[in-house]
Amino acid sequence: HLATSLPLPSERHHLRPRIDLIVFMIDIKSKYSLKNVQTSLAHVDASFFLGKVCFLVTGVGRVNACSIETNAICKLGEAYCSPVLYCELELEGIRLATAQRLLRMLQICAGHIPGVSALSFVSLMRNADDD
Amino acid sequence: DPQKTAFLLRKAWTLYSVTPLYRFRRGRLREYARLLSAFIAAEKQKGLAVEVGVELDIKVALSSLADLRGSEQDQAAVLVQLSSRSQASSRNSEDKLVWSGWFCSMFGDDLSENVPKDFTCLPLFLTHGAESYTSMVGTWFQKTFDCCFRRLAISPLNLSWMVAMWAGCKLDRAASAVELVFSVPRLSQPLDISYTIHPEDAKALWDTVQKTPGEISQEEVDVFMDCLYAHFHRHFKIYLSAAKLVKVSTAVASAHCDGVVKILHSQYMPGVLMLLTELAISQIQ
After folding, report:
1. Could you say which of A21, B131, B167, B205 would form a disulfide bridge with A109 (CB–CB 3.0 to 4.6 Å)?
2. Which InterPro entries does this chain map to (chain A) (predicted)?
3. B150 interface with A at CB cutoff 8 Å
């Protein structure tokens, strides 16, 4: 399901299936996309931040078109205890690899992989910080 | 000395980053000028001539701009000038300047500190004139000093630093307006939005944002830009933050994302060059 911002319209709430993973897309060429994500985050229930949220930063191939400081994005990932993935959608190989990673994450979040749950993402991230 | 560097003002300079020059000797500038002149003549013989029709004799001059440097570790700037003397009018033997370029380092200690002996660090190269001459001069320098030139593009992030810094500069005489030009992506017809702000308003805004005079942080630049975006949105319902900032213009200097700058005020030239040197060094490293 694709949405340009949150919250999702309440009219269709009863028809919506369970949400297993929220991917917030930030275009590094657009400051507006970061602001949009920041306001949308406020509408997400706290339980999602236990591994069911991730940030996808696109457009990283073009360093010279950068409108957002990467430090700001790192801080966002840290503040919300969620992983940050970087990709360049214009390159087919990277687009495919990123899609596969997201699919894998979704499988884990939906509980399809026995023995691994969404909480693993959170604990993996915390260990990296402590080091 | 503002008199000597006045010729650098109000010209559109195309920016390049240059890796350190190997075995560049300041005492041999006249010899280098002769060699470069011969190289250009040879290139023209090969049919890579610039002008069609009139045969032009290109004279090359290399000089040192002793005052154009920042710290003690900086190398003084080196100026290259190409002039033509048309053979047709031998009576009027005035040389016409057709191309100029200069190498510069303004507080480029980050680079010069970590470089072995025998290397001269002049990371910023600015050119004004036909691209074909730039290409010939660049090729000769690359072959002679084993260095590498790359166009220096300026990202929207860096352009917003520039407009915040320069809009906040104190000017003794009436300043020209602060202008930001945005390009709107993904439209069938390209659309440019020009946002012009009265210079006193821009300076007043920056003065309320900046906490410590002489120091600028990313947060302060973000707040400054967010105020400008919010003001524009309030009036026109357009999110400029979703567009690409391509050019900024102030009374101090103007800069375009393709890597073209114009320095307009001699007092702030060192500051502008310091920022550009920093960009050039980060592109090299």
Report:
1. A21
2. Centromere_Cenp-M, P-loop_NTPase
3. no
- The pTM (predicted TM-score) of the whole model is 0.87
Cβ within 8 Å, pair A69-B218: yes
Q: Would B81 be classed as within a structural domain?
A: yes
Residue of A nearest to B184 (CA): A30
Residue B54 in this model has a pLDDT that exceeds 60? no
Tally of structural domains, chain B: 2
**DSSP conformational letter for A14:** G
Scanning B171-200 for CB atoms below 8 A from A yields 185
Mean pLDDT computed over A73-102: 92
What class, spelled out in words, does domain A18-128 have in CATH?
alpha beta
CB distance from B241 to chain A under 8 Å?
yes
Q: Quote the domain boundaries for residue B247.
A: 156-257
Residues B33 and B97 in one domain: yes
Give yes or no for residue B87 having a pLDDT over 70.
no
| CB-CB under 8 Å, A33 with B242 | yes
Q: Are residues B98 and B163 in the same domain?
A: no
Q: Residue A65: which of B191, B256, B183, B154 has the closest Cα?
A: B154
Which amino acid is it at B7? F
**What is the number of CB-based contacts under 8 A between chain A and chain B?**
38
Contact at CB, B155 and A65, closer than 8 angstroms: yes
pLDDT bucket at B53, cuts 50 / 70 / 90: very low
Q: What is the DSSP string of B152-194?
A: ----HHHHHHHHHHHHT---SSPPPPEEEEEEE-S-SS-EEEE
Domain-embedded: residue B207 = yes
Residue B278: inside a domain: no
Tally Cβ neighbours within 10 Å of residue B143.
Answer: 10
Q: Can you tell me the ipTM of this complex?
A: 0.80
| Distance in angstroms (rounded) separating the CA atoms of residues A81 and B107 | 39
Q: Is A31 on the interface with B (CB under 8 A)?
A: yes
Asked whether residue B283 is domain-assigned, the answer is: no
- The dihedral region occupied by A99, where left means phi > 0, alpha psi between -120 and 50, and beta the remainder, is alpha
Asked if A4 has any chain B CB less than 8 Å from its own CB, the reply is no
pLDDT digits (tens, 9 = 90+) for B12-24: 999 999 999 999 9
Q: Where are the domains of chain A?
A: 18-128
CB contact under 8 A, B185 and A64: no
Q: In Å, how far is B121's CA from the nearest CA of chain A?
A: 24
